[in-house]
Amino acid sequence: MEYEFDVLVSREHTGSEKYDGLPDGFRSLGAITYGGAELDVKTAPCIREALEKRARDGIYGYTKPDDAYFAAVEGWMRSVRSWDIRREWIVPSYGTMQAACAAIRAFSGEGDGVIVQPPVYVLYHREIARTRREIVSNPLILENGRYRMDFDHLEQVMSHPKNKLLLLCNPHNPIMDHWEREDLETVARLAEKHGVLVFCDEIFAEHVCGGTLVPYAEVGGDNCIVATSLGKAFNFTGSSHANVIIPGKLVREKYMEQRNYDHYGSIDPFIYTATLAAYTPGGKDWIDALLAYSGENIRLLSDFFAEYLPRVRPCRHRAGTLVWVDFNGLGLGESALWDFFENEAAFTGDRGSIYGLGGNGFVRFQMGTPRSILLKALDRFRAAAEKQGWLM
Predict the structure, then answer these.
(1) Burial of 1 (0-12, 13-18, 19+ CB in 10 A)
(2) How many Å is the Cα radius of gyration of the chain?
(3) Is the pLDDT of residue 21 over 80?
(4) Under 8 Å between Cβ of 177 and 152
(5) What does the pLDDT read at residue 71?
(6) How far is CA 352 from the centre of its chain?
(7) Around Cβ 113, how many Cβ atoms within 10 Å?
(8) In the chain, what are the domains?
């Protein structure tokens, strides 16, 4: 089936957080931003058709997850992620970060520590601070374009009695790689040893494009909470919904008590419909086509840097439509680098510094975007870099 990946959808007058903030001059150039984790392409046709029908029905009342809903989630995890889950493990929640906050409040107290592994998704830091917990960093180690965990340091911070949770990201955003089974087994062993609960964010799991993703619950047992979502998989980032998978009965009950205390009610009727439509062979076919398309865009970007700016190096990429690129070889500070992106190249992504320790000099780019627009943007980038005398 052919998909409209090369069609740029206008986001004017839609309240788009991504496009309303475009720098001055971008629109006159026909330029877009390559920042943000949302795609620039339409979601799967099977979802759009189902939502159009639901919208025409005209009734959008209180909605609960029923047998069909749970069966869709179970079936998807089994067929697409090779992960056998039980129906009672599935806990609908109002988004991944709402779920993370509920877990933080349920399993720690104010002033306790929550461990993160920077560079990592910026909202982890924000939500830990909002819940009045302490951010405890266990920085990743970069070696030859690949990241690894510092397990010695992880055990050190886990052993502190005030540190109650680890927010694990797999696949890891923004580096866009996933952890091997041995890594996850080590995390699980240390967490069990030191009484640390693991909240594993797996919302990029459907976008693995190299190797095989191991569901954390396979190694974490009852000592974990796993977040899944339509958000990244199907470009539903603006819809606040997640299915949290919790194998352990005691952990699940305590989490649900906090979730309900945080004013959880019914689910969005459109999310109900979207879930049933997405978790089908049609949804899987669309994801496969998307990853092939964005993968070619990532190859074009990587080849561009290799040919013209070899001091700029993309990191290993095995997940998602995003790519994490190291610009430190240019020897620029962040201010100068961003001035170039905004005012010379009209080619922006996400500043690496927002992802915490180890992010300076890096940029995250979204490549789930129309290729015809990307090719024009790379021409502008090359011309701007040539003016700077950077081309090799």
Answers:
(1) exposed
(2) 21
(3) no
(4) no
(5) 99
(6) 15
(7) 21
(8) 17-43+282-388 (3.90.1150.10), 47-280 (3.40.640.10)
